[in-house]
Design brief:
With 167 residues, this protein is α/β, with parallel strands linked by helices. Helices cover 27% and strands 23% of the residues. The protein contains 4 helices and 6 strands, in the order E-H-E-H-E-H-H-E-E-E. A hairpin with a 4-residue loop joins strand 4 and strand 5. The chain is globular and about 50 Å long. The protein starts with 22 loop residues before the first strand and ends with a strand. The chain binds zinc ion (ZN). Zinc ion binds next to loops.
């Protein structure tokens, strides 16, 4: 008897689900960000992960492992943006503001952005690289989205496992 007898078989792979550009986009939940017209990301092209700030959270790592293991994605672009609500605000302020209506301050890390895009993106790309959950050789790109012009500027690139960020 196999010790694997209780593990259900994997579903047949459905290649139609593999993102055509083998790309994962991580960006903010901000309603103004239009990935389709800016990055030409159409349905079928990429996995799109969005959260407050476009930060690398545990849940982003969870999604990335699934994306790379089952759907062959091999590059990740992290996009922060101008006018982000998580810029120039402190965790304590957010907790206090939310606590006014919740009754008590939420004990959460809201992961506010650092002082500059450069610093925030560097921190997020390093977090991806250091996590041990992203495949070596994966290309990481850090970029800024301008919500006024809808243009994206690439600030840095890093390859997982190579130990440096190129600006
Ligand atoms: Zn934002």
């Amino acid at each position: 008897m196999s010790s694997n007898q209780d593990i259900p078989p994997r579903l047949d792979r459905d290649d139609a689900r593999v993102p055509a550009r083998r790309l994962v986009v991580l960006t903010c939940m901000d309603a103004r960000i239009d990935l389709r017209s800016t990055l030409d990301v159409k349905p079928g092209d990429a996995h799109v992960l969005r959260n407050a700030g476009g930060r690398v959270t545990e849940d982003v790592l969870r999604a990335l492992v699934l994306s790379q293991t089952y759907m062959d994605t091999r590059s990740v672009i992290v996009i922060h943006h101008t006018g982000c609500g998580l810029a120039q605000i402190a965790n304590e302020t957010i907790r206090a503001d939310a606590g006014l209506s919740l009754g008590m301050p939420p004990a959460l890390d809201f992961m506010p952005l650092e002082a500059t895009f450069e610093a925030s993106l560097t921190a997020d790309l390093e977090r991806l690289d250091a996590s041990g959950h992203v495949l070596p050789g994966t290309l990481l790109t850090g970029a800024v989205y301008d919500v006024a012009t809808h243009r994206v500027e690439i600030l840095m690139k890093r390859t997982v496992g190579r130990g440096r960020t190129d600006h």
